[in-house]
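Mods, move this if it's the wrong board.
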Amino acid sequence: MDSISLKLPEELLEASDRCARALGIPRAEYIRRAIERMNREAEARQRAARIAAASRKVRKESMRVNAEFARVERAPDA
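Not the wrong board. Structure tokens:
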């Protein structure tokens, strides 16, 4: 496992220590979990943005297909 060194504002470090103690885990584990959570959230936002972009690309065709299905539902023999 690699290590890093970082500087944190005193208030953030103290809050992290309090939370880690409350959870019964070491500070390093608390910070690892926080980073993992932020990574998951960032990846989810990126994934949502990619899906939205893909949706915008196919929106016109999707609307055409939906309209065609609506016509079939209104007149199934057509």
